[in-house]
Design goal:
transmembrane helix; ligase activity; two-stranded antiparallel ribbon; O-antigen_ligase-rel_domated; membrane; ligase
Length: about 450
């Protein structure tokens, strides 16, 4: 009898020990997933052999997930097929398209066809990241974790990094460290006597960084609306980045949440809607005023700045060039990655001079999709997103709001090959999870 009791006690001890190891393993894997997401989110400009670091690590883990995956969500396969169709249509388009840049003096990766293939690989890394997010969330949910707990883990990893950025910004601002040749900060107006410092971290500039942190702010409000510290940290980074797009995204999201709160009341929701739309539009116009003013003065300024590449290239030039590209290529667009190769076409330039350097429009989002792939490309993209929303939103508030956030950020100009927005797709298609769930691990 005594021996039997001892065996039972030993069995209980072993069971608890194994359970403890399982929890430790799960927590370790969750931390690893959070760090992986952090690297894919934040490190956008670091390159290894001309391949972006975050895209490289995303692609490197693809074979493992394809081998281990017993099945792949069909909506992710829709996106993969969609990207392949865009590449095929681009190759067909290139057969009859004339290029207006001496591309042979550039890297082979920027030649026709090769630049389109590079863009396809970027989209393939987006598919991979969405797949990993989808599989990882389902794995951890099977281990007893909620989507709230999983998401908060990766948000905190980003928050710790944000605090480091804020500390360094203060050191640069106070002159304790020199901002000259700094990586994470830059002077937005070097022609002025006093520097205007903008935080950019490992993004190309402050605007995209701020839009990314608006994404973090909105995700935080989705999974835990009372996470005031996290949201405050993310808002502070947006302010230090001086990001107009980030501000618009946060304001737009808050107005959307207010509308949701009152939409059940038939009269009140229309009143709220009539208040929200003008305020949101006024805010958007206010923060974008500099772009409008520059556009209006372009014809005058061009006389003195025709040789200034900072003026005749980039976003300002795109305001003239992009509408013409859409007008002459409405159905299939100009092709994946072809903007710089065809932007010197006299039909597109309007009042602008041709340039010999590689030019990027900087508009991003749905506009880039419309320019490169036309109405066909944009319509197919929105159709897939709509199908995902119709399938999952009725079962999950998390899915509903993540798809809305995805479209909001796309409308505000994020480049579609930025991995972080594809987190929202993987997040939306995971099995439904009640917003009100607060348990970290099942009892």
């Amino acid at each position: 009898m005594i021996i039997r009791i001892k065996k039972i006690k030993n069995l209980k001890i072993k069971t608890k020990y194994r359970a403890g190891l399982t929890i430790q393993k799960s927590e370790g894997l969750l931390l690893l997933f959070s760090i992986y997401c952090f690297l894919c989110f934040q490190i956008t400009e670091l390159k290894v052999a001309n391949i972006k670091f975050n895209e490289l690590i995303s692609l490197l883990v693809l074979p493992y997930f394809l081998i281990k995956a017993k099945s792949i969500n069909r909506y992710l396969l829709y996106f993969l097929t969609y990207f392949a169709i865009l590449l095929l249509l681009t190759f067909i388009k290139n057969l009859t398209q004339e290029f207006y840049l001496d591309y042979k003096s550039l890297s082979i990766l920027r030649w026709p066809y090769f630049i389109s293939l590079s863009r396809f690989i970027e989209y393939l890394s987006c598919f991979t990241f969405a797949l990993i997010t989808y599989k990882s969330y389902n794995y951890f949910k099977a281990k007893g974790y909620t989507k709230k707990y999983i998401t908060e883990k990766l948000l905190w990893v980003n928050a710790y990094f944000s605090l480091i950025l804020i500390v360094f910004y203060i050191l640069y601002y106070l002159g304790i460290l020199s901002y000259h040749n700094a990586t994470i900060i830059y002077d937005a107006a070097p022609y002025l006597p006093e520097p205007i410092l903008r935080l950019r971290a490992y993004f190309i500039e402050g605007g995209p960084l701020g839009l990314f942190y608006a994404f973090l702010f909105c995700i935080t409000s989705i999974v835990n609306k009372r996470a005031y510290f996290l949201k405050s940290v993310f808002i502070l980074v947006i302010i230090l980045a001086k990001s107009k797009a980030g501000i618009i995204a946060v304001v737009g999201w808050l107005f959307y949440i207010i509308y949701l709160k009152f939409r059940s009341k038939s009269i009140t929701k229309y009143i709220i809607f009539l208040i929200i739309v003008p305020v949101f539009l006024a805010t958007a116009v206010k923060v974008a005023d500099n772009y409008v003013e520059t556009y209006q003065q372009t014809a005058v300024l061009l006389k003195d700045r025709a040789d200034d590449n900072n003026f005749v290239m980039g976003r300002t030039a795109a305001f003239y060039i992009v509408p013409n590209m859409i007008y002459y290529n409405p159905v299939f667009g100009i092709g994946l990655g072809n903007y710089s190769l065809v932007r010197n076409d006299p039909r597109y330039l309007d009042i602008l001079p041709p340039v010999n350097d590689w030019d990027l429009p900087g508009l991003g989002g749905l506009i880039t999709l419309l320019v490169e792939n036309g109405i066909i490309g944009l319509s197919l993209f929105l159709a897939i997103v709509f199908l995902i929303h119709r399938k999952y939103a009725k079962y999950s508030l998390l899915a509903d709001r993540s798809i809305v956030l995805f479209l909001l950020i796309c409308c505000l100009g994020v480049q579609l090959y930025f991995l972080y927005i594809w987190f929202l797709i993987g997040f939306a298609i995971t099995s439904p999870d009640d917003l009100s769930q607060n348990l970290h691990v099942k009892a």
